[in-house]
Amino acid sequence: MAQHVAQPTATTPTLPATLPLKAIAPWAAFFGILMLVLLYFVGAEQGATAVVSGEGVHEWVHDARHLLGFPCH
Amino acid sequence: MNSATVRNLLVRGMLAGLGAGVLALIAAYFLGEPNVDRAIGFEEGHAPAHEHEVEIVSRSLQSTAGLATGVLIYGIAFGGIAALAYCVALGRVGRFGPRATALLLSGCALLAVYVVPFLKYPANPPAVGNGDTIGERTTLYFLMMVLSVLLAIAATILGKRLAPKLGTWYATVAAVAAFAVVIGLAFAFLPVVNEVPADFPATVLWRFRLSALAMQVILWGGFGLLFGELAERMLNPRPAKAEESRAMAAAPN
């Protein structure tokens, strides 16, 4: 019986508090851009544009680029 | 304290992204690679001397270490971005707990980041695509992706604005309908790309695209569940403790 009574309090959902946008902004600015740079190197480097010369990056991630849906060549 | 919460969620997002990336990699290797090989077989049989005559990276490296590098970095990067989006969405998109918010966000991300751009500009295997139009195709693909993500964010904000007037249900329906209409216009007006060679086997193309889609479903589904679990444990450790104390209270019986 005691278990039966205790259950509702344990499963009552507590709604999460919102995080202030000011606290998120610096992380979003720095890590957001870092993540986008990573995506650029996986998805587009040495395809349409190139930061590093040659074909090494393109050839290395060739299969991933095709299978992840990016235009490859 | 809030800044620390953001940092902890970001770290968990990148870890969950890595975990989901491993799952997607397994799918990519077993479902996707056979189709990549078939497409390359077609390419070698038909195309007169492809541009990569000198093999810089061998096929066996491309299909293993190269594939892993790409897919895992993709997982980590999108995991980090999704975690930042999650920090904003948490408690702002409706009455959802940490786990449900994670899965909801992850499902929306799958649609906005991948499925919507895929419907207009689907993934192509090797041998499909003219090397001369790579610039245009890359621009169009990223444009479609950015447009779809921005419209999804706009639709979410619209839904939130409409909710007090229309109620949650109709506000959500209206926001999704608005998203679909604008995306439909983009589909209609953006240029069509079709560079599939006339004699390319249709089944290989279909299976390649299905396997690419499967990878993304696994990636985002896995991310939603993994990240939701990590976020729930971090933000809401109380239920676990309550469980423990209940177990302890029940033990003497």
Automatic annotation (TrEMBL), chain A:
Native source organism of the sequence: Streptomyces rugosispiralis
Domain of life of the native organism: Bacteria
UniProt cross-references to Pfam families, sorted A to Z: CbtB (PF09489)
Protein name: CbtB-domain containing protein
Segments passing through the bilayer: 24-43
Family matches, as InterPro entries: CbtB_put
Alphabetized UniProt keyword annotations: Membrane, Transmembrane, Transmembrane helix
From TrEMBL, chain B:
Name this protein carries in UniProt: CbtA family protein
Alphabetic keyword roster: Membrane, Transmembrane, Transmembrane helix
Highest taxon of source: Bacteria
Transmembrane regions: 9-31, 67-88, 100-119, 139-158, 170-190, 210-231
Pfam families from the UniProt entry: CbtA
InterPro entries xrefs: CbtA_put (IPR012666)
